[in-house]
Amino acid sequence: MDAFTFAIPGDLSLPTGGYAYDRRVIEEAPGAGGMLTPLALPPGFPFPTGAELEASAQALAALPPGQKVLIDGLAFGALPVDLLQALGRPLAALVHHPLALESGLGEGQRAALFASEKAALAQAQAVIATSPATARRLVQDYGVPPGRLCVALPGTDPAPRARGSGQPPRLLAVGAVIPRKAHGVLVEALARLTDLAWDCRIVGATDRDPAETARVSGLIDTHGLGDRIRLTGALAPELLAEVFDDADLFVTASLFEGYGMGLTEALARGLPLVATRAGAIPDTVPAETALLVEPGDAAGLAQALRDLIAAPHTRARLAQAAWRHGQNLPSWTQTAATVLAALKEMPR
CA-based angle 16:151:291, to the nearest 5? Predict the structure, then answer.
């Protein structure tokens, strides 16, 4: 059985989509014909200190000669070219979404990350993107040759169809409280819908960006929606499953998604969606399952939500389409097999 190293920065157990992808690919690799052995890199990426870069170089250089190494994009795009070249090993990059597309960056940070990631990707013998949209961007903006690029869509576990909460309709948003998820835009949209009956849960880590959490909480208080919108924080898988089962409608105001694993989980449970046309979302979400609006448009998001909250028959139609599509999503074993195939094809 072929064995590869998978270098991942920070805490692999963190409840984010990127880390969830990494965990599942590692878990499913043996069933797909290979092994991915995790190698922990320091947590400071994508803005590592000099000491963290040195520690990363030492950890990677200590691997056996010729060992093929997959490096998570959170770290790969921030590793200097001279460090990558000095390793003298076959390298692959796993890109969930380009680093420069994270929201909340200053222009200087954005430019530095773009230049760093573009230079680093030129050193990769294989680049694995998690969506066709990200793959297209890597070719167009980062100059990645199509022949070195493959797409390994995230898997989705089979799940029972959501039963819903009945009345009032329960809205569910899933994602850490960070600027890119734009939960504040969702709050502003919901503030326009106080004439309708609904409640909303926003599930996701509240400690990733304390300032953004305080801002979103402040918006909820300002609009007097504390009894209708709840920030739950991150939830254990069994509790998250219960929240999905109670939901009647899934919503995201995200400004960018490299794929959108929460969206496919909603599809697998037969939930109608309201989402933005951001990043990979139009690829991830079939048109017949969702209403899509422009990112950052609170008024447009409010109108789409109104159209579904006030029209249970339309919700039911979209829900049925979501359920049908959700039954044909790729499994995590298929994802792991795609990743392993790309690594196996790399020359030593």
Answer: 65
- Please give the pLDDT value at position 103: 84
CA–CA distance, 131 with 335 (Å, rounded to integer): 11
Domains of the chain, by residue range, sit at: 2-155+330-344, 170-326
CATH fold of 170-326 = Rossmann fold (3.40.50)
Q: What is the pLDDT of residues 281-326, one digit of tens each?
A: 999 999 999 999 999 999 999 999 999 999 999 999 999 999 999 9
Instruction: Locate 90 and state its tokens.
Output: 């076959």
What is the Cα gyration radius of the chain? 21
Q: What does the mean pLDDT of the chain come to?
A: 96
Alpha-carbon distance 301 to 251, whole Å? 9
Grouping H, G, I as helix, E, B as strand and the rest as coil, residue 170 is strand
> What is the H or E stretch that residue 6 is in?
strand 2-9
Angle between helices 312-326 and 261-268 (to 10 degrees): 100
Do 19 and 96 touch, CB atoms closer than 8 A?
Answer: no
CATH of domain 2-155+330-344: 3.40.50.2000
101-107 contacts at long range (C-beta below 8 A, 24 or more positions apart): 101/256, 101/279, 102/180, 102/256, 103/178, 103/179, 103/180, 103/182, 103/255, 103/256, 104/178, 104/179, 104/180, 104/209, 104/212
Q: Beta strands of 48-155 (E only): which ranges?
A: 69-72, 91-95, 126-129, 149-151
Measured over the CA atoms of residue 126, residue 131, residue 132 and residue 138, the dihedral's sign is negative
Mean pLDDT of 169-179: 96
